[in-house]
């Protein structure tokens, strides 16, 4: 039991590193400060609980929340890749798998295998839970960019077609949330926060 607990607590401490992984989106409540991955994971997990009713299919919300809390822990090793940076994204998949294997490998075997499988399920996005989790994961940066007047879109010269293309998978998890995303993406383009 002591050895099992040591492994679990080792991962808990390792996860503290998520607080220092910065993303490209700024938080709404603190002008100028970039969001970190730990904040993102918490935020999107709360979204899942609040927005469950908008999933296209019934989902096990506990599983969705677990996916969202674990989905980005790989950024501890692999870093965060900006969704619109297609060149970096080519190498990210391999780096993230290696990171997932290392991080979940810290845990006792039964837990490590369980959460590695859950992480892979999220990445593959074929189950209702994974599709809904992916939808929320894609929606929150769109919402934050909109609330911050297109902050990272403007900083990185993002085009409307890129935002539509990269975020269309929202529709697979929630048609209602995709309709909302389309509305704010159109408004952002009309406000010149996105290139046309």
UniProtKB/TrEMBL annotation:
GO molecular function: 5'-deoxynucleotidase activity; metal ion binding
Enzyme Commission number: 3.1.3.89
Catalyzed chemical reaction(s): a 2'-deoxyribonucleoside 5'-phosphate + H2O = a 2'-deoxyribonucleoside + phosphate
Domain HD residues, every copy: 15-178
Gene3D superfamilies for this protein: Hypothetical protein af1432
Keywords of this entry: Hydrolase, Metal-binding
Cofactor(s) required for function per UniProt: Mn(2+); Co(2+)
GO CC list: cytoplasm
EC top class named in words: hydrolase
InterPro entries, per database record: HD/PDEase_dom, HD_domain, YfbR/HDDC2
PANTHER family: 5'-DEOXYNUCLEOTIDASE HDDC2 (PTHR11845:SF13)
Known partners and oligomeric status: Homodimer.
Identification of the protein by name: 5'-deoxynucleotidase
């Amino acid at each position: 039991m002591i050895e099992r607990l040591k492994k679990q607590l080792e991962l808990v401490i390792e996860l503290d590193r998520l607080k220092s992984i910065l993303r490209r989106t700024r938080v709404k409540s603190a002008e100028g400060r970039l969001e970190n991955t730990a904040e993102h994971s918490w935020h999107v997990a709360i979204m899942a609980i609040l927005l469950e009713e908008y999933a296209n299919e019934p989902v096990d919300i506990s599983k969705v929340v677990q996916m969202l809390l674990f989905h980005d822990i790989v950024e501890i090793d692999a870093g965060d890749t900006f969704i619109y940076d297609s060149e970096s994204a080519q190498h990210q998949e391999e780096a993230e798998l290696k990171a997932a294997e290392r991080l979940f490998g810290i845990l006792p075997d039964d837990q490590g295998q369980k959460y590695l499988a859950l992480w892979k399920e999220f990445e593959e996005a074929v189950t209702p839970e994974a599709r809904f989790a992916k939808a929320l994961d894609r929606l929150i940066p769109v919402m934050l960019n909109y609330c911050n007047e297109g902050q990272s879109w403007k900083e990185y010269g993002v085009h409307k077609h890129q935002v539509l293309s990269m975020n269309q998978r929202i529709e697979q998890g929630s048609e209602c949330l995709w309709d909302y995303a389309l509305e704010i993406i159109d408004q952002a383009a009309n406000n010149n926060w996105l290139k046309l």
